[in-house]
Amino acid sequence: MAEPPLQRRPRRTFDWSTAAIAIAVGVSALIVYRRDGPGRFFEILISDFDLFVSVVPKMLAACLIAAFVAVLMPREVVLRWVGAESGFMGIIVATLAGAICPGGAITIFPVAAAFVAIGADIGAAVAFITSWTLLGYARVLVWEMPFFGGTFVLWRIIIALPLPIIAGVAARLLAGIAARRQRDEAGG
Asked: How many Cα neighbours within 13 Å face the side chain of 111?
């Protein structure tokens, strides 16, 4: 029997965050146009368009990778290791995964979304992204070690190590409270 298709939460193309960004872009563009003139305005516009064109293929590739991960990863494995029933160990696994995953935000966020779509819980996703942000090995090797040295990096990692775990546990607890409140409101 075939597995049911992934359940995705409905998304709107235009929401409050898109509106806020659109307003910030519009205001900034107007200020640059008035302050620096049309020449500078169009120089920035063309430069941003070039950036957009260079990022779109990377975003497409990252989203395709995430879609393939979602299809290839067995749902049972995801549920066992980082699902809602995985307990504290699921938060630890997600923290370790975030620390060792290479790539930038263009890769990490679609992969995290794919894991959530196939059964990872919110706490594991938060721990994964927080760990990637604070403990990612690529950033440590390429940027922190050369600029700050080993002692600084060691102390920063020791101090930051519990933060993804705390964030994951807090997210799981808050999501549970929100789900109970929503059930109570729907039932009564």
From this structure: 19
Tens digit of each residue's pLDDT (9 = 90 or more) over 17-39: 889 999 999 999 999 999 999 99
6 touches 118 (CB < 8 A) = yes
Contact 111, 101 (CB under 8 A): yes
Number of Cβ within a 10 Å radius of residue 116: 19
Sole residue written with tokens 């965050």:
17
DSSP state, residue 121: -
Question: What does the alpha-carbon distance between residue 146 and residue 140 come to, in Å, rounded to a whole number?
Answer: 9
Strand (E) positions, the chain?
none
How many angstroms separate the CA atoms of 116 and 168, rounded?
13
For residue 117, give the DSSP letter: H
Q: What are 157-165's contacts with CB under 8 Å, separation 24+? A: 160/134, 160/135, 161/135, 163/130, 163/134, 164/91, 164/94, 164/95, 164/98, 164/126, 164/127, 164/128, 164/130, 164/131, 164/134, 164/135, 165/91, 165/92, 165/95, 165/127
Q: Do 149 and 123 meet the contact criterion of CB atoms below 8 Å apart?
A: no
Q: Which pTM does this prediction carry? A: 0.76
